[in-house]
Fold this sequence. Notes:
Strand 3, helix 3 (about 85-95) and strand 4 form a beta-alpha-beta unit. The protein is globular, with a radius of gyration of 16 Å. The protein has one domain (about 5-200). The N and C termini lie close together (about 10 Å). It has helices at about 15-35, 50-60, 85-95, 115-120, 120-125, 145-155, 170-175, 180-185, 190-200; strands spanning about 5, 40-45, 70-75, 105-110. By secondary structure, it is α/β, with parallel strands linked by helices. It has a 4-stranded parallel beta sheet with strand order 2-1-3-4, with helices on both faces.
Amino acid sequence: MSAELYIEGGATGADSKELQIRCREGFRKLLEKCGYKGRMPRLFACGSRGATFDDFKFGLAAKASNDYVAMWIDSEDPLSDLEKTWDHLKQRDNWNKPTGATDDQVLLMTTCMETLIAADRDALANHYNDLQVSALLPLLDLESRNRHCVQDSLFRATQNSKNAYSKGKRSYEILSKLTPATLEEHLPSFVRTRRILSEKL
């Protein structure tokens, strides 16, 4: 059996190759901390959300019967039911579930990758010596927050730093430093992602 994971991240354009490498590296290090070293899925940094879905559909069509193919994307909005991922994507994006696809082939960062980063205050404090913790959103029900609010809080909390938070290179560097146990403590969607990957890998 083989496993492939199509990730929303990286970029298109002049910086795309470097950002795709950094994206894969950040997610690889996080997954290795989850205990998957030696059984890692093949990681693809696909760029935009729509491009990730397209690449996932291509990988799904080409997979062998016992292979696991999934995509790991932002939910963009809070979910009413974490397990009904295709219902969420149909309602929000009007994406139709490909033939044969299942809910456990959609792993969601709820509501965005910045939610993962904002959930690990120790990792943030170690990365930013002058972190303004008071500018971050409360950890309680963090996944219910609008993604723009989560992102803005990270920008405000790091705005006095010479390497203030920004999407891309810096975000993947911090992602690689996150602690899975901390994420599980605060983020039900990460608990689900880890449970599914532990079953499939």
